[in-house]
Specification:
Elements: H1 6-44, H2 49-88, H3 92-96, H4 98-102, H5 110-117
Helix pairs in contact: 1-2
């Protein structure tokens, strides 16, 4: 991102912010919408001890498998790399849909598209 033009640098930073920030906003929306359902068994007391144990095991397993292995080691780095690529190679259409591009839903290899949409 070494460019002499301050406008070009600002445009690149804006592309990065829109791509990564848009993905963060989509994830935040999912967390806000799903949290009430996730804590419902804990709040209303409908789960017995066995259910609570299985609930805890499920949270721990998914925290590792989906949170650490999938999200932290694969998804997040890919979002950032694609955002930097978009900032260096701006295309008007891709800039408009930057969050989808950064998540790998557009302008990706066939395998990436199948994984993203499948």
């Amino acid at each position: 991102m070494n460019d002499a033009s301050p406008w070009r640098r600002a445009a690149r930073l804006l592309a990065l912010a829109w791509g990564v920030g848009g993905v963060a906003l989509l994830l935040l929306q999912a967390v806000i919408r799903l949290t009430p359902r996730a804590v419902e068994p804990l709040v209303d007391g409908s789960a017995g001890p066995v259910h609570l144990g299985l609930y805890l095991l499920s949270v721990l397993f998914n925290g590792y498998a989906e949170g650490y292995r999938a999200f932290q080691k694969q998804f997040s780095p890919r979002v950032v790399v694609r955002a930097f690529w978009l900032a260096e190679h701006p295309r008007p259409v891709l800039l408009l849909v930057a969050p989808l591009f950064c998540m790998g839903h557009l302008h990706a290899t066939r395998r990436r598209l199948i994984l993203a949409w499948g």
